Amino acid sequence: MDKSKITGILLAGGESRRFGSHKAFAKFHRKFFYEYAIEALEENVRKLIIVSHPTLVEQFQHQTSVEVIQDLPEYKGNGPLAGMLTAMQKVPSDWFVVLPCDTPFVTDELVKQLITYTNDPRIDAVVPVINDRQQPLIAVYHSRVAKRIEKLLKIQHFKMSDLLDVSHVKFVTNHDLQLKGMEFENINDQNEYKKVQQKPI
């Protein structure tokens, strides 16, 4: 897949209530969590965009040259689908690689592998299933899903599973991907954060 047809979306719009502060700016081995997502995306996409929580926009703009946007006003605070639609309407692209800001072990290699599955024209999305758990926020989506997302948001269906239910999804498992083992670990609270600090990159 030609990377000129791919845009990266970094989702950083959540409240991080369980964590106690915004996870995007939590540090792991001297880097912010969000920086690991940028590193995983930047070599694989033509353009990269951060969909930010309103209180983080200024901080992102001071620390990175990546374009930072906020949810469309009519869908503000409506979760990942709102962030995805906002980015899809902002940047014309065939495909969008979506990553969250709380998975510091995500890698460039993983993103490359997911992109290889986009060659089938029937596919709307490539979504990993790791240890029987779907990972729709570390995934790749075709631009055609934007209209479906908009319809879902209008009827207040905010779950990622709602989008997968109305899309032709290529699910890829542990067996389809070459993994180091921790790529999909996300950090939800301070206990998990303390544990992850002990782990190597």
The CATH superfamily is Spore Coat Polysaccharide Biosynthesis Protein SpsA, Chain A
Topology pattern, helix = H, strand = E: EEEHEHEHEHEEEHHEH
Percentage of residues in DSSP E strands: 15-25%
The secondary-structure class comes to alpha/beta
Shape-level CATH architecture: Alpha-Beta Complex
How would you describe the overall organization of this protein?
The chain is α/β, with parallel strands linked by helices. It has a single domain (about 5-195), classed as Spore Coat Polysaccharide Biosynthesis Protein SpsA, Chain A (Alpha-Beta Complex), CATH 3.90.550.10. About 30% of the residues lie in helices and about 20% in strands. It is built from 7 helices and 10 strands. The chain has helices at about 35-40, 55-65, 80-90, 110-115, 145-155, 160-165, 190-195; strands spanning about 5-10, 25-30, 30, 45-50, 65-70, 95-100, 125-130, 135, 140, 170-175. The strands form 2 sheets. Strands 1, 4, 5, 6, 7, 8, 9 and 10 form an 8-stranded mixed beta sheet that branches. A two-stranded antiparallel sheet has the order 2-3. Helix 3 crosses helix 5 (about 145-155). The longest helix is centred in the middle third of the chain and has 11 residues, at about 80-90. The radius of gyration is 16 Å and the shape is globular. The mean pLDDT is about 90.
List the helices and strands and how they pair.
Blueprint: E1 6-12, E2 27-28, E3 31-32, H1 33-41, E4 47-52, H2 57-63, E5 67-69, H3 80-90, E6 95-100, H4 108-115, E7 125-130, E8 133-134, E9 139-142, H5 145-154, H6 160-165, E10 169-173, H7 190-196
Parallel strand pairs: 1-4, 1-6, 4-5, 7-10
Antiparallel strand pairs: 2-3, 6-9, 7-8, 7-9
Helix pairs in contact: 3-5
